[in-house]
Amino acid sequence: MAPCAIDDFHDLVVCLQDAVKGTAPDQWIELDPGLFEQAGELAALFGEAPLTIRQRDAATPLLAVGSDSVEVSGDGPLFAAADQRYEITVTGSYDGAPVLGLKATPVGAWTFADNFPVGFPDYLGFAPPALARLPSFIPGIAFESPSFSVAPGSAALSFGADAALDKGSLAPLDEYLGPGPIHLAGPVDVRPAEKTYPKLELSGALSGWSMPSAGAPRLRIATVDAESTKPAESVIELVASTAPGNYASLEVSAPLLRAPYAWELSAEPEDPTAYLLESGLEALSDEVGMQLSLPTGLSGLGGFGLRSIMLGIAPAKRVDALGLIGLRFGTIPGAAPVWTAPILGLSLKELEIGWDIVAPLSKSSEMLGLVSGKLGVGSGAAAVDL
C-alpha cells in the first residue's frame, strides 16, 4: 500500500485512523515509512521499523483527536532490539507537513543497558594500585524516573533521568559531588545500521559543588568512538568553565572514577590566537598572585597563544582553594619568536613556554617555569636545527 498523501491535519488524522488494526480494547498501530515519511523517521530513531504501539486498556483509547492535534497512546517495546516495554505517547500535528513528537517511560523493572544489546565500551578507571581499562560504568548507573523523548519535529532522540550518587556505579562520587541525584539529559543516537553501542552525550548540573575560578559545574557522561590509535571509550567527566586572566571563558574538564587523590581540570583552546600571551600576561599574574616571569633573551611576547590550562584540586564537596594552576603557551602559525639561551651558540624556536603555580594565592606559593622548542646550534650559515 502506498504511503498516505497528507496535505492537511485532516489527512493526518484519517491516515492514522485507517492504520489502526484490531478492535478495542486490543487495537494497535505500526509507525513506519510505509505509513508516511515522518512516521518512518520517528521509528528509525529506535532501530529498525516499525514502532508498534498497542492500546493500553479499555479506558484509554489508542487514538485521541483534538482540534489541531492527534495523540496515539499505548504500550510497546520502544527499541527494535529489546523487549523492554514502555508507556508511549506520540503526538501529531500539521504545519506544512506532519509534525510528530514522542515521550516514553518504562513499564516495570528497567535498566538503561537492557535497551542496547551491544555492550558499552570500556573506560579508563582506577583498579588499585593503578589505572586500567575496565568494563563500562554506564550499565551500573542507578537511574530513577527515566524517559525517552523526541521533541515535535525533531530528528533526535533524547534521554533524561535522575542518576543516584548513593548507589550503583556512581557511588564513589557521592563523597565529593553528593548529595544526589543529578538529573542527566541529552541525545542518544541508537545507530542501528552500525550494530554498535549507542552514542551518548548526557550532562547535568552539579548544584551542590563549587570551586574557585570555575563556574557552571556539571557532570558529563558520554560514549566516544575509536579514533586512530585511541580505542572507543565510556567517559565520565567533571566539567566547568573558567576565564583565566582577562581572556574569554574556557570549558575545562577532569576525568572521574580514576582516583580520589587529585582532579585536574584541563582545556586546550581550539583557537590559541584568541588567547595571546602579550594581551594577558599581567592579568594572569594578578590572578595567580605571582609575576609570571619570562626567560632572559626571549624575543618579545608576540606570537604566543594559549595551548592549555590546567586547574588542580583535591577532591571535596566544597573546594576552597586551587592546588595547582598550569599554563602553556606555544608559537602560533606565522609567528617566529626565538629564545636565545644564555649559552653561547644555542637557541630555541617553535617555542612553548609555561608556568606551574603550586598553591596559588597562598603564602606557600611556588612557581616552576619552563621553555621548550626546537634546538638550534650555531649562527648564520652554520646554524643547525636539532
Strand content: 35-45%
* N-to-C order of helices and strands: HEEHEEEEEEEEEHEEEEEEHEEEEEE
Total E-strand runs:
23
Count the helices. How many? 4
Mean pLDDT: 88
As residue ranges, the low-confidence spans are none
* Largest β sheet strand count, sense and barrel closure: 11 strands, antiparallel
Q: What's the gyration radius in Å?
A: 28 Å
Ends apart, CA distance between termini:
73 Å
Shape: elongated
Task: Please explain how this structure is put together.
The mean pLDDT is 88. This protein starts with 8 loop residues before the first helix and ends with a strand. β10 and β11 (157-163) form a beta hairpin. The chain has helices at 9-19, 37-44, 174-177, 277-288; strands at residues 21-23, 26-31, 51-54, 63-65, 70-77, 85-94, 98-106, 123-127, 130-134, 143-150, 157-163, 182-189, 199-205, 215-224, 233-242, 250-255, 263-267, 304-313, 324-331, 339-340, 346-358, 366-377, 384-385. It is mainly beta. The chain is elongated and about 90 Å long. The longest helix has 12 residues, at 277-288.
